[in-house]
Every structure is written in structure tokens, then in C-alpha cells.
Amino acid sequence: MSNFIINQNWRYATKKFDAAKKISTEDLNTLKEAIRLSSSSYGLQLYKVIIVENPELRAKLLPASYGQTQVVDASHLFVFAAQTTVDDSDVDGYIKNVSQTREIPAEALAGYADFMKGAIKTKSEDAKKIWNSKQTYLALANLLNAAAELKIDITPMEGFDPEQYNEILGLNKLNLTASVIAPVGYRHDEDATQHHKKVRKSNEELFITL
Asked: With b meaning 16 or more CB within 10 Å and e meaning fewer, what string describes 163-178?
């Protein structure tokens, strides 16, 4: 069995974190790099990731998280926030990055830039918001997998009030909205959930081969 599959069997949505255990700077940087390297549509990465360490700030987020204590007990709280808008400037910034990184004249990328801008213009404002939000889940997947490899626990959560998060974290001013959150740290010895057998559909139920 590959290490990847072993790690996936090890990980679970941690219910109780050990508040005394903190992620090292080295491991935190690895998790951040895993997120940074995530795939996204056109490579645009239309989101920010807010890493909340401040305990007072996290205490304010607890009621907005329906009292789920992972938010305050975990070592760090990752908040994936999608852009509320997307326009030509996002494409221009990406093209500039490609040009500089790959040492390609920006003029040579003009056709691709026009293609992306045209595709984005066909989307309604609501469709753009949904599209941006979906990209955060790709980044979350990389965080989940990297954390499992490092034997760091994580609980992906949609159970929170995005509007309250936006207000508390000042995301509205940044044209961002909280999409999904993930407390990250180390499981508590008293978390009985870690001993439960993983429950998933069988291959026969899950996959269709055509």
C-alpha cells in the first residue's frame, strides 16, 4: 500500500484538538507551500488564505463557528476566502507573473490573455462568485494531503457563518468572502473519533467505468 493511501486512512476530521501542541514554523511553511502550489482554473488563484493565530480573534470567531471548539483549540485556523469579483486586472496580473517567471514577452501571451478575459466575461456575477469559491476547495485538498503526510490533523469545515467571518476578519474591505475553513493542529488523546473505523462507499458503489 502506498504511503499516500496509508496517510489517507490515518487522517480524519478531528473533533478535539490538543491546544497545547503547536505546528512548527517549518511544517507551517510546508503547508503554505502546498497551498501555494495548488491547481486552480487558468492558474489565476482567485482567493486568499488567512491564517489566524491570534487567540482573541479566534475567540470572536467561535460563535460564528456555531461553537465548534476546533476553531480555538487548533494550532492554527486557515480561512480560505474567495474573491467576490474577477475582471481583466486579475488576468493581467497573472500574465505579468507568467511573463516574468518564464521569461516570455508579455506580447507573446496576449492571445491567451484575451481568451481568458473573453471566457470570464461570459459568466454572470453569481457564476463568477461560485467559480472563485470552487477554487478554494482545490487549495483545501492540497492542504489536507500535505497535512496528512506530516501527521498534522485538520478539520475542513463549512459549518460557519461567512458573513460574520467577513465582518470579524475585515474581508469585505478586501473584496473577499470566507468560503471554507480548516482548523489545523494535533488531535487530543481524548478525541474518541480517532479510533473509529473510516466509513466510505465501496468501489462498486462509488465508481462507474464506461
From this structure: eebbebbebeeeebbb
